[in-house]
Specification:
The chain has about 90 residues and is α+β, with helices and mostly antiparallel strands. The protein has a single domain, classed as At1g16640 B3 domain (Beta Barrel), CATH 2.40.330.10. The chain is about 30% helix and about 25% strand. β2 and β3 form a beta hairpin. The longest helix is centred in the N-terminal third of the chain and has 12 residues. The two termini are about 20 Å apart.
């Protein structure tokens, strides 16, 4: 399972702050992520295609159509992650 971010959002919000090309984003790029809800941050970086499943989807029991938020913190050079809304149909 991967994190799906609309292309328009990637171009508008991700590329400018992480200084990466669309091709790099498509392949998977390493970024650090702080989980705001659980107050945890792994020291390692994440490729949103790979470690995303184990460290976020599985650990946070994310389901299809759950809404998550990502905010780039330029001072920490990492994303802040939070579960914004759980899909009621999944419960």
């Amino acid at each position: 399972m991967q994190l799906s971010i609309p292309t328009r959002s990637v171009k508008r919000f991700l590329l400018p702050v992480i200084n990466a090309t669309s091709a790099q984003i498509k392949e998977g790029i390493e970024v650090a992520i702080w989980d705001v809800d659980t107050n945890t941050r792994n020291v390692k970086s994440y490729i949103l295609k790979t470690n995303w499943f184990h460290d976020f989807v599985r650990r946070r029991d994310l389901r299809l159509y759950d809404a998550v938020g990502l905010y780039w913190d330029p001072s920490q050079k990492c994303f802040h992650f939070s579960v914004l809304c759980r899909n009621i149909a999944n419960q």
